[in-house]
Specification:
four-stranded antiparallel sheet; Neuraminidase; mainly beta
Length: 313
């Protein structure tokens, strides 16, 4: 199992045994919402030995870079770090996004935050000339980057649902709200191409005060919104469960909240969600979910623990 640490290390873990895969801490600024936030391994990793990382660099900007592993595929020299993209992120340390993941089309996707502060006063998320507040699509073969979706506040974690309708893969995005609502977006990957998720005209379903000018027409509505009241503060998006051993969660979307730590699930559908319910599971300082090649689901905590979700016997 690969475990990414905010400070800049990537660890290989097998049970209680762990060792360093690589350490790029010299290139990373860490603290608060900054740090090494994810890594992505392409489908051809076994032959290419290339992987990609998403982090905040020493200038405070968002950087996506490639690393080259050795022939064994179990170590990567930090000296091989090669810049792919830098997204300027001036002024504020928060809202850096953080997810990097290969899609079913073999292209690389990245979710960036709106630049931080409150209310997106710079209007980055709606600005077609800014890469902040966006879902980006990157072609690793030629380095081409394009804006895939806009109108996101801080899409810290997203995932692809390849099982619900294999002919029409879907994407699920946990987008962190401002003061009132956390939201989950879910639509086909094709529909997400060119989509506008509405921030900062909307927070969840509610109009957001001070948007300039409002662009309500044609914005994508979330399938699920929950209140930031009662100690909740930041949605942590997860995965649609495809591990048949997790019978009570099969085909349900898992998500949680950083502040409460509570993990919930719902039945995702285009245009809405059904049967949202508690799982009874809680992870303190919940920071991310992970998925194994066989569909196994993991949850990570900022306290250094990684949990494997298993069925009750």
């Amino acid at each position: 199992m690969i475990v990414v640490e905010k400070g800049g290390r990537i660890r290989l873990a097998r049970g209680r045994h762990r060792r360093t895969f690589t350490n790029i801490s010299g290139s990373v600024i860490s603290g608060g919402e900054r740090g090494l936030l994810s890594a992505a391994f392409p489908p051809d990793y076994a032959s290419s030995r290339l992987l990609y990382v998403y982090f905040t660099n020493r200038s405070g900007d968002i950087e996506i870079a490639a690393l080259h592993a050795d022939a064994s595929g179990t170590r990567a020299d930090p000296a091989t770090l090669r810049r792919v993209l830098v997204v300027p992120h001036p002024g504020h340390p928060n809202h850096n996004g953080g997810q990097l993941q290969f899609g079913p089309d073999g292209l690389l996707y990245a979710g960036t935050g709106d630049g931080g502060g409150e209310g997106d006063v710079a209007h980055n998320a709606q600005n077609p000339n800014s890469m902040l507040g966006k879902l980006l699509q990157i072609n690793p073969a030629n380095g081409q980057v394009r804006i895939y979706s806009r109108g996101l506040r801080n899409p810290y974690r997203f995932s692809f649902d390849l099982a619900s309708d294999p002919a029409h893969p879907r994407i699920a995005i946990g987008d962190v709200g401002q003061d009132r609502f956390e939201e989950i977006d879910y639509l086909t990957l094709a529909a997400a191409d060119g989509a506008n998720f509405g921030w900062n005209d909307f927070e969840g379903f509610a109009p957001f005060p001070g948007a300039r000018p409002p662009t309500a027409a044609g914005t994508i509505k979330p399938i699920k919104v929950y209140s930031s009241a009662r100690s909740a503060c930041a949605v942590i998006g997860g995965y649609v469960v495809r591990d048949s051993r997790l019978r009570s969660l099969l085909h349900r979307y898992l998500y949680g909240d950083f502040c409460t730590g509570r993990i919930r699930s719902l039945v995702p559908a285009l245009g809405g969600a059904r049967k949202d319910r508690a799982t009874g599971l809680s992870v303190r300082d919940l920071s991310s979910f992970g998925e194994g090649a066989n569909g196994a689901i993991y949850a990570a905590s900022l306290d250094g623990s990684v949990y494997h979700l298993v069925s009750r016997r």
